[in-house]
Structure formats: C-alpha cells, structure tokens
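Usage example:
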Amino acid sequence: MEIFLQQVVSGLATGGIYGSLALALVMIYQATDVVNYAQGEMAMFSTYLAWTMINAGLPYWAAFVATLAIAFVGGLVIERVVIRPVENAPILTIVIVCIGLLVILNSLAGWIYSYIQKPFPSPFPETPIVIGTVVFGAHDLGAIGVTLVVLVFLYGFFRYTMLGLAMRAAAQNPSSSRLCGIRVGWMLAVGWGLAALVGAVAGMMVAPIVFLDPNTSPGGAVLGGLIVGVVENLVGTYVRFIGTELKLTVALTMILVVLVVKPSGLFGRAVVHRV
Amino acid sequence: MALLEVEGLEAQYGWTKVLHGIRFEVEDGGITTILGANGAGKTTTLRAVCGMVRTAGEIRFDGRRLAGRATEDIVRLGIAHVPEGRGTFMQLTVEENLRLGAYARREKGALAGALTRVYDYFPVLGERRRQIAGSLSGGEQQMLAVGRALMLRPRLLLLDEPSLGLAPLVVREIFRIVRAINREERVGVLLVEQNAATALDLADHAYLLETGRVVMSGPSADLRRDDAIRRAYLGY
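Running the assembly step on the lines above writes:
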C-alpha cells in the first residue's frame, strides 16, 4: 500500500508536468489551429537557460522567474517573427515551419551545451517527506504544487482578466473580436508567450527527474515517439544509403505521413467543422 | 457637417467589384437606412466603413478620413458595428460578450455603468447574464449584439439586417429600442435592411441600393410614397 501511494504521487507529479505541457499545446491549438511541434524544444531550451543562470550563481527561484520572463518574450517573438508570415498558409506549411523550429532549437542547444546529459537541480529538499508510513519525494510534492499554482494562475487569467477574455474571444471569433477593437494578431502572440512560459515551468520541473539533454522533449506522444525512434534506427542500420546521416529525414517523413493520413493523430477522431 | 460622409465608395472582393461609387451621409444623431435586395451591396457598404474590405473613395467620420485604418482603430473612434450574423461569441456568457463590447474603452469604471445601461434597455439580458450566449434565442442574440455595440458608447451604430430571421413582434421590440437609444444617447444609426417597411418607419433618411449603385435617395417619407418602391419593396 505504501509503495502504491508513493508511486501514485510520483505519477501525479510527472503526469501534472506532462499535462501542463499538453495544456500549452492546446492553448496554441485552440487559438490558431496550429499544433506547435516545437513546444517540447522550446521548453527544453528554456530549461537550459535556467541551468546557465543557476550555474552562474543565481539563486534557483531568481533563475526560475527570469526564465519565465525570457520564455514569455521568446514565445511572443517566435510568433511574431516565425509564425506570423505563414499565418494564412496551408496547414502543412505551418507544420513544416514548426518542425523546422524544433530542429533549429534542438541543434542550437546541442551546439551550445553539447548533447551530454546534465543534472538539473530541484528547488525542493532532497530529504523525503514522511507522512504516516508513506515516504514521498519532496520534488514530487513540490512539482505537484507548482503545477497547481500554474493552473490556478491560468484559470484566473483567462476567467477574470480583460486580456484573458479578449484572448478567448480572439480564438473563437476573430472578425467579431476586431469589431470590438481587439488586436487579434497580438492576442495570438501573447498566447504563444504564455504557452512558452507554461512549457518552461514544465521543463524546469521535469529536468531534475529525467536530466537535461537536448533530445528530451517531455510529454511527447510516447507510443508515436517509440515507433518513430525504432523504425528510424532500423532503417538507418539496414538500408545502406540512408545510414546515420539521413536518419532524421526518415523520422520526419514518418511524422508527415501520419499527419497527412491521420491528421487528428494516431488515436484521434476526425473533427467536423460546421461551415 | 454630417457625422459620416461617404463619397465615390467602391469596394471589391478579389476581382469582383461590389460597390460602384456610392455616396451617402448619416447626420449626427440621425438614422439613415440603406435598402436593397439580396446582393445589392448593403453588407459590403457597412464592412467598407469599418475597413473590413478593400475600398476606394472617401469615407469621413466626424471629419476624419477612415480609408487605410485598421478595423480595431476605426472602432476606437466610436463606430460600433453589429455585423451580419450578429457576431456572437457563442461559448462565452452573455456578460462576457457585453464586457468585450467595452474592450476598446480605457476609462476606469466605464464598465459597470455601461452594463447597467444595457440591462436597462434589455432586461432579458440581465436575467440571463450568466448563461452561455449560444443558448439564447435568435431575438435575444440580436439584443445581445446591439447591447454589445452599445457598450462602446458609440457615436455611430452600424446595424446589418437586425430583423433577419426574427418574428415580427421581436423585430418591432428591437427597433423600438434602437429608436430609444438613438434619441437618448444621440447615437447616429446606419441601418441596412431588406425589410423596407420597418426600416422606413425608423429612419429619417433612406437610400436605395441596386447592384452596387444608389438608384434613389431622400427623406424616408418620400421614398415610402414612391410608387416604384411601394410595388418592389413594400408589396402593396
């Protein structure tokens, strides 16, 4: 029973982190119908920035807050500079731009920080917390707390502030929003900023558990990831002209094929839009 | 000087020209209606005023030129547009819809007063203010659309076929309230309608639009007496 409870809490901690990353994806998807494939990479990159600041001697929570600010501005700038020019392009174009962003951020992190795993500190004590006879990891409990704070903050923001309301309106009915004086383009950019911020929190919470390396995008679709990874490696090994150089191409091709054939995802349902 | 002066207005969607140089005015505190059949260019005229469609020609609001301004900025000058299809935010509550109407206003404390005013005009919106807007009836949604526009405290109200799809009794109620708003708040109104009889009763000035051209204009009373209008648009 103790072990069971312990594992459930641990699962809630990682699940909450995955959940907030998924939330970041959904925030962007609802507003723009774009799945941001670079979401995990943006989170990873933000976490590296936090790592740099902590290693430079900044206290953890100062680095935490600074990272959130940088992530927010970064997400905003990415929307304005990278996504805006292709806003009205066919969905596949936007997907490719997002995948390009993913590859760039991934390579950039690898180039700056190398691909060697780095330990990332937890702000919570190492000594476990004992309640009754059950032992909980302090980081697990802390991560659950942080996730809850993020959720409450987002809920309050969207529910009770004018900006949050305007963002929901812009996502639902852009032309009517313009008639209310809402600058719809900016709302989308703020949405990207917020999503990047939430992703950064998730990245910093999961990094102490899984370590930090450029190839970790927490919350990736596990099964899809496994299939893509295995096929990529097998093809790379057994099909001679592909080898190691073209391996990534195989993975991206597979992702594209899935998107074209089953755009709603491996287990997704088709969405019917009323015209 | 009229509140809204439009001259030589042309508009097009892609290669298709919809307005061929029309001229009309809305007096400050007056009600002007643009009548016409389906496809005459009525909706496009309103969209042109709000910068939602590519135009050529002159549009002046309170002496200021509107051409080239973004819709969001035109709204801030005090023009509220109740669009075709009402533009309801279906998944938001009634009150959230109304709050959005005041988004462009920056004065502190404007919101509470504006909400009270709208609930005075439309008590049913007050009763339903926590409901999701999508659950309202057609008539209530039209009231919500007018209420949302009113939240801006506009100087000019653009109404796109408020009678569409509504029962005659509901239409009469909405037009009665529009008249009250026009008198009490001194809001200029530009109304486009297919329902010529009701529109002519409300408006003091009328224009008749046919395939993108103004073919007749004058005081509403004159148009109502015109034989051709009576046969084609009033049906008696």
